[in-house]
Amino acid sequence: ERMAYRDLREWITQVNELGELKTVEGADWDLEIGAIIEMARKESQIAPCLLFDSIKGFAKGLRLVAGQLNSIKRVALTCGMPTDMATMDLVAAMRKKIKEMKPIPPREVKEGPFMENVWEEKDVDVLRFPTPRYNIGDGGRYIGTGHLTITRDPEEGWLNIGTYRVMIHDSKSVGLYISPGRHARIQMEKYFAQNRPMPVALSLGHDPLLFMASAFEVPYGLSEYDFAGGLKGAPIDVVKLARTGLQVPATAEVVIEGECLPGDQKTEGPFGEWTGYYASHVREEPVIRIRRMYFRNDPIMAGAPPSRPP
What we know:
With 310 residues, the chain is an alpha+beta fold. It is built from seven helices and 18 strands. It has helices at residues 8-17, 32-43, 72-78, 87-100, 183-193, 208-215, 224-232, and strands at residues 21-25, 49-53, 63-66, 107-109, 117-120, 142-144, 148-152, 159-162, 166-170, 173-176, 198-203, 237-240, 247-249, 254-268, 271-272, 278-279, 283-295, 300-303. Strands 5, 6, 7, 8, 9, 10, 11, 14 and 17 form a nine-stranded antiparallel β-sheet that branches. Strands 1-2-3-18 form a four-stranded mixed β-sheet, with helices on both faces.
């Protein structure tokens, strides 16, 4: 029986042991990575998990992982299920698990490996990380596709985690697009109605189970950390960030800490979305002003650009 993985790096090692990892050296962040991800999905019987290294213009060791959950075995591994289950058996087992599970709140720990390097605001430069421009019509480079956007409700106090796309504007600011009606959008509207900045944390590489949890429609008021803990059967370890008080995954690879200010907007989009279109027009959207950035040595960022439907 395989030992449960403890972080993204152990997860990648185990995916490699399953024979489902492909490392790609020297790809160009500009369109080429996007094309390779698309081809890997379309042209293989089992779409591999892709690990990009020595990305053009960037040092070896600054990596990007993509296609994490594009196979049944990797979904099973991520959820702590046997990796040799037949597809429909896994679907049935997952349904049962989700129905019977009890949410488990996260456990706060003092520190995480992401604290190996800390950039204060004056030193922050998101352009030093290999962020792809995935599709030819995209409005920019999307650093946030397989990430977590972490926010807190200003009145009710609960944490929300969602994957709301994030586009780079410049070295110290990124754009955040949250669809209307989403939990973080409701939280943001509360902050702005009170004319207060909304603290935001982004995790850009972490346990794929958290990415999976962020995509589930969990009930309003329930934190995705509690939901992921329930799926895992153990609490998710989190670290409370000093500036914002937001909890980020202790095993995160790269963390951005910042805030959205009322009325502070910049042009964002479009982005090639899962419908097969460049979704949501180019328009003014909130900006995250980055106040601090943390990252592990040789960090692995996660990318999950939506695929065009068949």
